TrEMBL record, chain A:
PANTHER family: N-ACETYLGALACTOSAMINE PERMEASE II COMPONENT-RELATED, PHOSPHOTRANSFERASE SYSTEM SUGAR-SPECIFIC EIID COMPONENT
Keyword check for Ribosomal protein: no
A Gene Ontology cellular-component term: plasma membrane
Pfam families: EIID-AGA
InterPro entries: GatZ_KbaZ_carbometab (IPR050303), PTS_IID_man (IPR004704)
GO biological process: phosphoenolpyruvate-dependent sugar phosphotransferase system
Protein name: PTS system, IID component
Membrane-crossing residue ranges in chain numbering: 104-127, 133-153, 174-195, 215-234, 246-264
Species of the source: Companilactobacillus kimchiensis
Keyword Transmembrane on entry: yes
TrEMBL record, chain B:
Short name of any one Pfam family annotated for the protein: EII-Sor
Primary location class: membrane
Alphabetic keyword roster: Cell membrane, Membrane, Phosphotransferase system, Sugar transport, Transferase, Transmembrane, Transmembrane helix, Transport
Membrane topology, as annotated: Multi-pass membrane protein
Entry's transmembrane regions: 28-46, 58-86, 92-113, 152-177, 183-202, 223-242
Compositional bias per record (Acidic residues), positions renumbered to this chain: 258-272
Region (Disordered): 247-272
Keyword Transferase: yes
MF-aspect GO terms: transferase activity
Organism of provenance: Companilactobacillus kimchiensis
GO terms (BP aspect): phosphoenolpyruvate-dependent sugar phosphotransferase system
Name of this protein: Phosphotransferase system, mannose fructose N-acetylgalactosamine-specific
């Protein structure tokens, strides 16, 4: 197995800075970008092993979404683990990515989007309101500092990932199972938090108004998003179904669901 | 009341760079503040640009793209609002008034760009099957094109035809289509999650999926993804601890004294 060089890791850092979200799409979000970002490492590790490369490509094209600054930690750890274990256990990689992306997104968005933006841009805006364009320098300077933090994150992630993989060497199966448990818990939690859709239907019966959403919520909150996910999951298990076809199914479903009020004349 | 070609081109290049900034470095050009300031600078009225940009910025401080959600495109709104305000010579508040509906309308182009990139994701899937990593790489680079077009086209069209085009477009696209598109955007992440479920051993570990879902479904506003992940981590750790115990002392049965604290627990737990 090849070793990653410092240059590979720096390349991944630069790619991560710019390209994690170029290919952002509704289906796998940062999935396409993730594969592009980590590609220098994949090339180093699997260039001479076509089967491993195929597995790696498929694994790294999977669903991924997190806060950009925090993504450096995950990608770093991924590199550290793959350097040790290769693609012998793709489920462990998926579990790690999925398990970490949720919590990191929460922390990262709060720190790097909400808090950071509120501070830096409100100061800059107040300066601009008084007619000074000088405040525009502030986001640039603060942003440069963030880039440095992201560089550090890449290395911290890489070192921790290597450590994790070394400690668990020979016990990867347990790690995989642990990662799967973490991953599946987060996947379950993703459904109510990522799919913010409700039917928004009210049914008028004489003087009584029935709020369909309230009724469904009493059965189970986020029942509709769960149903849509389970429906998609079930469809994906069908022989003739692939993700391209599923997208059209879901867009068609969206067209119907988005117009329920018109359909029922409410 | 038109804008010169040169200015349209400069502003198009700017919004292209700005949207790339928005999805990568987030240094500043992506913000409404910069949008207003740059437009003002290019059109020779920096002060109005700063006013429009700063006001919009302060209005939208709390609006962040959490988890990749689409938010109104106030950057493009700020650029066009500033341009119209300077053209009509009606001051900053006129520009702000226009910027908000423009930003709201352009939510749609953002959604379209994010949908269009699914095409490249699927091309990448195909090349991954062949192990063709160079072609997989290319797809992510192509992904910049829908992003750039989604910002350049509205700015170019909007500035070329003036503000009448905004209301024209608003009345041309049927409302049901807009609603359908919006809903499709809301439910499409279901697909990414479903694919993930196909990838993880859900049949074996379904209880954890249920726990995760229930925590957020019922806990929603009082609970967070971080909280669910910590519970998941705890459950994973418990699993690893219990699963790991029997295997380690087997080889070190003679060195019990060195790990006295652990061996007390071991005797209780080993049941095989």
């Amino acid at each position: 197995m090849n070793k990653l060089t410092d240059k590979d890791i720096k390349k991944v850092y630069w790619r991560n800075l710019f390209g994690l979200q170029w290919g952002w799409n509704y289906e796998r979000m940062q999935g396409l970008g993730y594969s592009w970002v980590i590609m220098p490492a994949l090339k180093r590790l699997y260039k001479d092993d076509k089967e491993q490369m195929k597995t790696a490509l498929k694994t790294q094209l999977g669903f991924f979404n997190t806060s950009q600054p925090m993504s450096h930690l995950i990608i770093g750890a991924d590199m550290g683990i793959e350097e040790k274990t290769g693609m012998s256990d793709p489920e462990a990689i998926v579990g790690l990515k999925t398990g970490l992306m949720g919590p990191f997104a929460g922390v990262g968005d709060t720190i790097f989007l909400a808090i950071y933006r509120a501070i830096v841009f409100s100061i800059a805006s107040y300066m601009a309101l008084s007619g000074s364009a000088l405040g525009l320098l502030l986001p640039i300077i603060a942003g440069a500092a963030i880039l440095w933090v992201r560089y550090k994150f890449t290395w911290i992630g890489y070192q921790q990932g290597t450590k994790l993989a070394t400690e668990f060497a020979g016990r990867m199966k347990i790690l995989t199972e642990g990662a799967s448990i973490l991953g599946l818990t987060v996947v379950g939690a993703l459904i109510p938090s990522v799919i913010n859709y409700s039917l928004d239907l009210k049914y008028q019966m004489g003087k009584v108004t029935l709020n369909i959403d309230d009724m469904l919520n009493q059965i189970l909150p986020s029942l509709v998003p769960l149903a849509i996910v389970m429906f998609s999951y079930w469809l994906l298990g069908k022989k003739k179904m692939n993700s391209t076809r599923l997208i059209f199914v879901l867009i068609a479903l969206g067209m119907v669901l988005g117009n329920l009020k018109r359909i029922f004349g409410m | 009341m038109t804008v010169s070609f040169g200015i349209i081109i400069v502003l198009c290049v700017y919004v292209a760079l700005a949207v790339l900034d928005q999805i990568s470095l987030q240094l500043g050009p992506y913000s409404p503040l910069f949008g207003g300031a740059i437009t003002g600078l290019v059109m020779g009225d920096l002060k109005t640009g700063l006013m429009v940009g700063a006001t919009l910025q302060l209005m939208t401080l709390g609006v962040a793209t959490f988890g990749g959600a689409t938010v109104p495109d106030f950057l493009t709104g700020s650029v066009m609002g500033t341009a119209y305000a300077i053209l009509a010579n009606k001051g900053a508040s006129y520009g702000i008034g226009l910027a908000v509906p423009i930003g709201l309308l352009l939510t749609q182009t953002d959604i379209l760009a994010r949908m269009a990139n699914t095409f490249f994701q699927h091309r990448a899937d195909r090349f991954a099957e062949e192990g063709n990593y160079r072609k997989v790489e290319l797809q992510n680079i192509w992904g910049t094109i829908p992003w750039i077009l989604s910002r350049i086209l509205p700015v170019a069209i909007g500035l070329f035809f003036g503000q009448s085009v905004v209301s024209a477009i608003n009345s041309f696209i049927p409302a049901w289509f807009m609603d359908g598109l919006k809903t499709a955007g809301l439910i499409l992440p279901a697909m990414g999650i479903a694919i993930l479920m196909r990838y993880l051993p859900i049949k074996k570990y379904f209880p954890f999926f249920i726990i995760g879902f229930v925590m957020m479904a019922y806990g929603g506003k009082n609970f967070s993804i971080l909280g669910s992940a910590l519970v998941g981590l705890a459950m994973a750790a418990i699993y690893v601890i219990f699963k790991n115990k029997p295997t380690s002392p087997v080889t070190t049965s003679g060195t019990d004294s060195s790990e006295n604290d652990d061996s007390d627990d071991d005797e209780v737990e080993i049941d095989e």
